Automatic annotation (TrEMBL):
It catalyses: [(1->4)-alpha-D-galacturonosyl](n) + H2O = alpha-D-galacturonate + [(1->4)-alpha-D-galacturonosyl](n-1). Keywords: Cell wall biogenesis/degradation, Disulfide bond, Glycoprotein, Glycosidase, Hydrolase, Repeat, Secreted, Signal. It comes from Bimuria novae-zelandiae CBS 107.79. GO terms for cellular component: extracellular region. InterPro entries: Glyco_hydro_28, PbH1, Pectin_lyas_fold, Pectin_lyase_fold/virulence. This is galacturonan 1,4-alpha-galacturonidase. GO terms for biological process: cell wall organization; pectin catabolic process. Its main location: secreted. Residues 1-19 form the signal peptide. It is found in: Secreted. The keyword Iron does not apply.
Length: 440
């Protein structure tokens, strides 16, 4: 879109000219080109431009809802370039159908903690909440704009209230078919994305950056959490945050993750699983390939709770859940400055391994491959570079390593291997010596 056009639109929006009264031929010239994955769905035949007060104190939620309502079922909604849409109330967008959301400007969520604690959507799982929930079918989000979570206020509040329920920045709930691409996510209060109870969803070409500007850590800012979802693709993205780059939570199945640059993260993690005794958690058919992992606590990780209750922290307690991790492959990971390069723990939440071994996990791990993983770890667990600890000889099977060469900055390559068949570990330099799983 030309600068001149975007200024014309900005002016129209600021005097609150409803896009319905503007010629469709003109409006359609304001659209961003459809993203690669959006092109697979039918073209949209109506354009709606969301109005904005362009003012950090005035809520634009109702403008956004009315533009989306106008263009649902076959339209293209524009969030105009150069404008900030302030969102100060929750948006229930779970009934979308065949719509493109073209984010050219900035969507900014207010940081009124008092308000959001009472009004954010409750996602129930792990006390997560969200500013909005996007679902339905055939929904494509793109446009080179930004979604800003004003997370600093939330990160600053967390140390004083560890039970504070913080919102996920971008929540996809009950979506069948759609994509999110090209946009930037900034300063997420909690996880950047959750995709839950969804299928056939693609994330591509995204850029996340959430780092604190003071001593309060950007806590729990996972890149993606996948929960009760099937057939998900995550690719071609850059993530700088302070927690998992991608996390496969209970019932993540058929997921491909490829071509990511993860910086400052906690690795690409299956789990934690088995946290709740009454639940059965499956994570199956996961392929993670071509990942660059820098300044991270972990590279490739699987974390499962043993069969005994423990309290890892005030807000994270559990153990005893059942289920299965099956067919997980990490193929191609370059590591720089990570604490552990590869990790399996079936003792999550229980820091005493001997105590853990008395309560073997009810959640088996089978057919896991670590292939073509190389690079350098830092001093944190030196001389150990990896941690593979199952809770009994019977709860892990088919754990393979091929072409794995991870070394500390001093060149050592020891890997803790307990309760698993070292024959299939492709010459990893196994030791019984354990420095424990990484609490980070
Ligand atoms: C616009 O698209 C919708 C959904 O794809 C379709 O139902 C409708 O008939 C189309 N309208 C026109 C005027 O083409
Ligand atoms: C969102 O709206 C749908 C109806 O479109 C409703 O069924 C659902 O309960 C609402 N979700 C929340 C969290 O309010
Ligand atoms: C924050 O939200 C609370 C509760 O809704 C409200 O009373 C208060 O005025 C809001 N504060 C600001 C600065 O908007
Ligand atoms: C959720 O919050 C409640 C109350 O603050 C707390 O008891 C519980 O442990 C939390 N659950 C998780 C999974 O963090
Ligand atoms: C994703 O990245 C790969 C490798 O760089 C590239 O071949 C592919 O075209 C990209 N996909 C999209 C949709 O841009
Ligand atoms: C691997 O990912 C990088 C981005 O981190 C990309 O540039 C490269 O093309 C990818 N390689 C393949 C073989 O897709
Ligand atoms: C990596 O993260 C650090 C902050 O932890 C940041 O300063 C740096 O710019 C990031 N690097 C890239 C390439 O994004
Ligand atoms: C996972 O899927 C299984 C089988 O469909 C189901 O029994 C179980 O309750 C699900 N678990 C969760 C946490 O949703
Ligand atoms: C293992 O997972 C991969 C990736 O999702 C899939 O292509 C393959 O068919 C799965 N294999 C089995 C035996 O389920
Ligand atoms: C992250 O890693 C890059 C490359 O190894 C390095 O240049 C940079 O200083 C690191 N940043 C931090 C914050 O450690
Ligand atoms: C886990 O493995 C044990 C021992 O091999 C077996 O008895 C049990 O049935 C397995 N459980 C699942 C859920 O596969
Ligand atoms: C295994 O680690 C020990 C202790 O660091 C070292 O002496 C030995 O050379 C290593 N073996 C291999 C095969 O790398």
């Amino acid at each position: 879109m030309t600068t001149l056009k975007s200024w014309i639109v900005a002016s129209l929006l600021l005097v609150s000219v409803n896009s319905a009264s503007v010629d469709e031929t003109f409006l359609s010239t304001l659209r961003s080109p459809r993203s690669f994955y959006a092109q697979a769905s039918p073209s949209r035949n109506k354009t709606c431009v969301a109005l904005s007060h362009n003012d950090p104190l005035t809520d634009d939620a109702s403008n956004i809802l009315s533009a989306i309502e106008d263009c649902n079922n076959g339209g293209h909604v524009i969030f105009a370039d150069k404008l900030t849409y302030t969102i100060a109330s929750p948006l229930n967008l779970t009934n979308l159908n065949a719509v493109d959301l073209d984010i050219q400007g900035t969507l900014s969520f207010t940081d009124n903690i008092t308000y959001w604690v009472d009004n954010a959507f409750d996602l129930v799982y792990q006390n997560a909440t969200s500013f909005f929930a996007l679902g339905g079918q055939d929904v494509h989000v793109y446009g080179a704009g930004e979604v800003h979570g004003n997370g600093q206020t939330w990160w600053d509040a967390y140390p004083g209230n560890k039970k504070l329920k913080r919102p996920v920045l971008f929540a996809v709930v009950g979506l069948d078919g759609g994509s999110v691409s090209q946009i930037k996510l900034r300063n997420s209060p909690f996880w950047h994305n959750i995709v839950m109870e969804s299928k056939n969803v693609i994330y591509s070409g995204l850029d996340f950056f959430s780092t604190s500007n003071n001593g309060n850590f950007e806590k729990n800012t996972d890149g993606w959490d996948i929960y009760r979802s099937d057939n998900i693709l995550i690719e071609n993205s850059t993530i700088t945050n302070g927690d998992d780059c991608v996390s496969f939570k209970p019932n993540s199945t058929n997921v491909l993750v490829q071509n990511l640059y993860c910086n400052g993260t906690h690795g690409i993690s299956v789990g934690s699983l088995g946290q709740y005794p009454e639940r059965v958690d499956y994570v199956e058919n996961i392929l993670v390939r071509n990942i660059t992992m820098e300044n991270s606590s972990e590279g490739a990780r699987i974390k499962v709770w043993p069969d005994a209750y423990s309290e890892k922290s005030e807000a994270l307690t559990g153990g005893g859940g059942r289920g299965l991790v099956r067919n997980v492959t990490y193929d191609g990971m370059r590591l720089t400055n990570v604490d552990y390069g590869i990790t399996i723990t079936q003792c999550y939440g229980q820091d005493d391994e001997e105590e853990c071994f008395k309560h073997p996990s009810k959640l088996n791990i089978t057919d896991v491959t670590f292939r073509n993983i190389r690079g350098r770890t830092n001093r944190v667990f030196s001389p150990i570079v990896g941690h593979l600890v199952c809770s009994s000889p019977y709860t892990c099977s088919g754990i393979l390593a091929e072409d794995v060469d991870i070394r500390t900055i001093n060149g050592s390559n020891l890997v803790t291997c307990r309760n698993l068949d070292t024959e299939s570990l492709g010459g990893l330099n196994c030791t019984e010596w354990s420095k424990g799983y990484n609490p980070a």
